[in-house]
Amino acid sequence: MNHGILLPIILPLITAILLVLLSGRRQLIRTTSMLSATALVAVSIGLLMQANDGQIRLYAPGNWLPPFGIILVLDRLSAMMLAVTAVLAFFSLAYAVRGHDAPGDRLHGMVHFLLVGVNGAFLTGDLFNLFVFFEILLISSYGLLLHGRGVERARSGLHYVIVNLVGSALFLMGVSALYGITGSLNMADLGDKISKLDPADAPLAATAGILLLVVFGLKAAMAPFYFWLPRAYAAASAPVAAMFAIMTKVGAYAIIRVYTQIFGDNAGILANFAWFWLWPIALITLVMGLLGALSARELRVQIAYLVIVSVGTLLAGIALNREAGLAASLYYLIHSTMICGAMFLLADLILRQRGELLDHIAEGPRLRQSALLGVVFFIAAMAVAGLPPFSGFIGKLLLLNAAGVQADAVILWMIVLAGSLTTLIALSRSGSMIFWQTTDQVESAPAADKGALLAVIGLLGCVGVVTFLAGPILDYTFKVAQQLLEPGAYLQAMQQFRVQ
Amino acid sequence: MEALVAVVIAVLVSCGVYLLLRARTFPVILGLTLLSYAVNLFIFVMGRLRAGAPAVIGSSETYADPIPQALVLTAIVIGFAMTAFLLVLSLRARAELGNDHVDGGAAIGEKPAKPVRPLEEDEV
Fold first, then answer.
1. B28 CA to chain A: closest CA distance, Å?
2. CATH topology of domain B2-50+64-107
C-alpha cells in the first residue's frame, strides 16, 4: 500500500497538535505552521502527479479491507482538490503570519485542524467517514469563524453553527437510511448495490439521496440554503474568510462524488435523478448571488455573494452531467477558489486604510496606498467577473460551450452572460466608490504590510498560472471528468484491491 | 414494535423542529438535542429491530448488525460535543448581544437589553 495517501490527513493533524502544545510561543507557532503548509503543498503536488496516471489508488487504514473497512481513495478528482486546498491554505497562512492572526495564537492550530477535515473529506471513500470528516472541518470552522471579538461574529456564528447542526442531523438520516436499504457505506459498493436495487426500495433510496443533496447543498451554499453565508464570511477575519473559500467547494465535491458514483449512470431507475433538481437550483443560486452582489453595502458582503455566484456556476456545470460540463466546472472551481480567497485578503488590506468606514461602500477618506491597492483590486475584479484574458473567462466559455444550444441551455447562456455584466457593474460601483469618490484627506493608517501584500499578489498570481496553463489544466480536468463518468471504474479498483 | 419506534421518532423530530423554529437560543438548543435523539434512534433502527440478539457473533444463535450501533456511538459523541459547543456559544452571544434572541435583536414589542458586560481581552 502507498502510505503517501495518508499524508494530507496526518501532516496537518500532527502539526495542529504540535501547535496547540506550543501555545504562547507565537513566533515558533508561525514558523511551524508555515513549514507544515509548505510541506502540504509539496505532498499534494506529489500526489497529483501520482494520480495523473489515471489509476485509482486505495489505502485501507489498519488493513481492514473494503467494503467493511474504511478506505481512502486517491483518484484524479481528490488529488486536484487536495492541491487547490493546499495552495489556498499556504497563501491564507502566509497572510495570517504577517500579524493578522491576532488575538492570541490559536488561529494556526485551528486552520490545520480544518485542513485535516477538508483533506479527509476529499480522500475518504466511505459515506459515514465523510460525515466524520465534515464534522471535523465544521467544528474547526466554528472556532475559526468566532476567532477574535465582535458582536457580528457572535451573531453570524450562532446562525452558522445552528444551521450546520441541523445539516449534520439530516446527513446522518440520509446515510443511515442508505445503510438500512443496502447494508453498505462504502461509496463504490453503494453504487453497485443501488444498481441492483429492488424497485420497491427505490423511493426510500431516492429520499435518502435527496436528504444528502440538501446537506451538501447547505455546505455548498446553494439556493435556498445560502442565507448563512454572506454574514458569516463577511464577519470572519481575513485569513479565515480566504480559507473558507474552499468550504463551499467541499459541498460541491461531495455532490459530484455521491451523484456520479452512487446515483450515476448505473443506478438503474435512480440513475441521475439528482440533476433534475440541481439544474434549476443552480440557476436560482446564480441569480440570487448576483442580486446580492449588486445590493451589498460592504465590500466583504459583496465578495461573499460572489462566492455564491461561483457556486451557482459550478453547480450548473455539474448538473449538465456531461463530460465537457464537468470538466469546465472543475476548471472554474480552481479559478473561483483562488480568486475569492484573494479578494477576501485584498478587502482586508483595503479596509485597514479606511479608518472607521472599514469596507462600507461609501464616500470616505483617500486610501494611503490608493494606486497600488486600486491596481490590484482592478485586476482581481476583472478576473472574478470572468473577463478575458483571465481564467474565469475560459471557464465560463467552456461551460457555455458544453451547455450547447438547447432550450434550457439558453437560460444558462442568458444568466451567465448577464451575470458577468452584473458582477462587473457591482465591482465597478464598489471600486470607484472606494478608490475615487474620496475626500481630500488621507487616512493616517500604516502602509499595507509587504508580506501580506505579497500573499495577496501570490494568490492572484496563482489565478494567472491557472490562466497561462489553461491547456494542461483543462486536459487534466477532462481526464477527471472521464474517470468520474466511466461506469464501474471505481468498483473495479476496489475489487482488484481486495484481491491483492 | 417497529410502528411504536417509528411513532417515537416522528414525535421527537416534530418536537425538535418546533423548538428549532423558536426565536430564543435555549429552546433552539433543546430542539437540536431532541432532533439528535431522533436521529440516533433512527440510525439504530436501520440495523433492524430484533429482540435477544447481541451484536456479537457466536454468543447466541442470532446476532444483530453491529455497524449501526457503532454509528450511533459516533453520532452520540459528536452530537454531545456540538451541543456543548453551542451552549457556550449561545452564552457568549447572550453576553455580547445583550439578549438571547437567535438574530441577536430584541423580539417585537421588547426593549433591547444592555450587554451584561463587555468581554475582556483575555476571554476571547
1. 8
2. Helix Hairpins (1.10.287)
Other Cβ atoms closer than 10 A to B52: 8
Position of cell 477535515?
A117
For strand A364-366 and strand A72-74, is the pairing parallel, antiparallel, or unpaired?
A: unpaired
Contact assessment for residue A296 and residue A361, using Cβ atoms and an 8 Å cutoff: yes
Helix (H, G, I), strand (E, B) or coil at A366: strand
Q: A423: Cβ–Cβ under 8 A, 6 or more apart, which residues?
A: A290, A293, A306, A309, A384, A385, A386
Contacts of A314 (CB under 8 A, 6+ apart): A249, A252, A282, A329, A332, A333, A336
Strand (E) positions, A388-476? 438-442
The residues facing A366 across adjacent strands are A442
Size of chain A in residues: 500
- Of the candidates B85, B69, B26, the one whose C-alpha atom is nearest the C-alpha of residue A164 is B85
What's the gap between Cα A40 and its chain centre? 17
What pairs with residue B101 in β-bridges?
B24
Q: At what angle do helices A299-319 and A407-435 cross, to 10 degrees?
A: 160
Q: Work out the pLDDT band at A38, boundaries 50, 70, 90.
A: very high
> Which pLDDT value is given to residue A130?
95
Residue among A64, A136, A176 with most chain B CBs within 10 A, to mutate: A176
Of B48, B90, B96, the CB nearest to A151: B96
Q: Which residues pair with A360 in a beta bridge?
A: A298
C-alpha–C-alpha distance, residues A341 and A322, integer Å: 28
Query: A54: phi > 0 → left, psi -120 to 50 → alpha, else beta; which?
Result: left
Cα distance between residue A39 and residue A50, in whole Å: 17
Q: Which residue has the cell 426565536?
A: B23
Q: Do B68 and A179 touch (CB under 8 A)?
A: yes
User: Rounded distance, CA A402 to CA A320, Å?
Assistant: 8
Q: What is the ipTM of this complex?
A: 0.88
In 3D, which of A83, A100, A92, A93 has the Cα closest to residue A47? A83
Average pLDDT, chain A: 91
Residues of A in contact with B42 (CB under 8 A): 172-173, 176-177
A162 touches chain B (CB under 8 A): yes
Mutation pick from A126, A128, A158 vs chain B, by most beta carbons of B within 10 Å, is A158
pLDDT at A147: 87
Chain A neighbours among B 15-74 (CB < 8 Å)? 20, 25, 28, 32, 35-36, 38-39, 42-43, 45-48, 65, 67-68, 71, 74
Residue A364 bridge partners (DSSP):
A438
CA atoms within 13 A on the CB side of A368: 13
User: Domains of chain B: which residue ranges?
Assistant: 2-50+64-107
pLDDT tens, position by position, A77-134: 999 999 999 999 999 999 999 988 877 788 999 999 999 999 999 999 999 999 999 9
Q: Give pLDDT tens digits for A50-92.
A: 999 988 999 998 888 888 889 999 999 999 999 999 999 999 9
Entry pTM: 0.93
Distance CA(A469)–CA(A473), nearest Å, equals: 6
Task: Report CA dihedral (A81, A87, A92, A95) to the nearest 10 degrees.
Answer: -170
